[in-house]
From TrEMBL:
Catalytic activity: ATP + protein L-histidine = ADP + protein N-phospho-L-histidine
Single GO MF annotation: ATP binding
The keyword Transferase is assigned to this record: yes
Organism annotation: Paludifilum halophilum
Major localisation: membrane
UniProt-recorded name of the protein: histidine kinase
Ranges for domain HAMP: 1-34
Membrane topology type: Multi-pass membrane protein
Length: 254
């Protein structure tokens, strides 16, 4: 009887554990569902803005485009720039959607100094801006997915260049003993109250300014996902009107 009681006790305990696990799973599924629902609703909303602009310029073209060359030029220009923004936004949405469903990075041993140096070189041509790379002599060993790190650097440099006019600095080395790199610009900066929010999808500090610069509000949320997939950390240090430094730290691989 002793043994039987013990068994019963154990199976009840297991039952409780199973129920608790099941409840946790349900909570996670609900939270995920809620996140996806929010994403779809935000994405539709964000795509509606450029579409509305395109639609109204197309209407203007139809009414007055044939006879008024200035209208024709303005409308074509706006339609072109808004459709490019939409294209970039859908590309980034796909990156986010894929990242979430697969959640996989292909980690390999890399020297972060090499990787960052090589990633930045072609971008100097792309961005037409001076990008100064500072790195220590030593190799900075870590496990990383080179393609993803390149994508990450692209996002951070793209922002640094969009929101400043001066040369941009990239630093690679060990920060508090961890393989790290940072991107610094001497530009607009981010107001203190917005710093925690800029990682949220579609969040932009100044919607009007971002529209001019072609922003989508998705870059930093992709950056954060890449960093988290590497079990790393991403931090922003910024002062309005002075500039911004975004630092990424990855796990060590000594
Ligand atoms: P976006 O495509 O709008 O740049 P991000 O997600 O990359 O989207 O950034 C979100 C917002 O954070 C930007 O709209 C901008 O307001 C702010 N931001 C990001 N990086 C910088 C930076 N280097 N300097 C100033 N503001 C920045």
């Amino acid at each position: 009887t002793f043994k039987k009681l013990d068994m019963e006790y154990r199976s009840k305990d297991e039952l409780y554990q199973m129920a608790a696990t099941f409840n946790r799973m349900m909570d996670l599924m609900k939270a995920n569902f809620e996140k996806q629902r929010q994403f779809i609703s935000d994405a539709s909303h964000e795509l509606k803005t450029p579409l509305t602009i395109i639609e109204s310029y197309a209407q203007l073209l139809k009414r007055r485009g044939k006879n008024e060359p200035e209208i024709l030029e303005e409308a074509v220009e706006e339609i072109h720039s808004e459709s490019r923004r939409m294209k970039e936004m859908t590309r980034q949405m796909l990156v986010l959607a894929r990242g979430e469903s697969l959640g996989s990075v292909e980690l390999q041993e890399v020297d972060l100094t090499d990787l960052c140096g090589n990633a930045v070189k072609p971008l100097i041509q792309t961005f037409h801006r001076e990008i100064r790379v500072h790195s220590s002599e030593e190799k900075v060993h870590t496990l990383a997915d080179p393609r993803q790190i390149k994508q990450l650097l692209f996002i951070l440099l793209d922002n640094a260049i969009k929101y400043s006019k001066k040369p941009v600095e990239v630093w690679v080395g060990y920060d508090h003993g961890l393989p790290s790199f940072s991107v610094t610009d001497w530009g607009a900066g981010i107001p203190r109250e917005d710093i925690d929010l800029v990682f949220e999808r579609f969040y932009r500090v100044d919607k009007a300014r971002s529209r001019e610069t072609g922003g989508t509000g998705l870059g930093l949320s992709i950056a954060r996902e890449i960093v988290h997939a590497h079990n790393g950390k991403i931090d922003i240090d910024s002062e309005e009107g002075r500039g911004t430094t975004v630092t990424v730290s990855l796990p060590g691989n000594e």
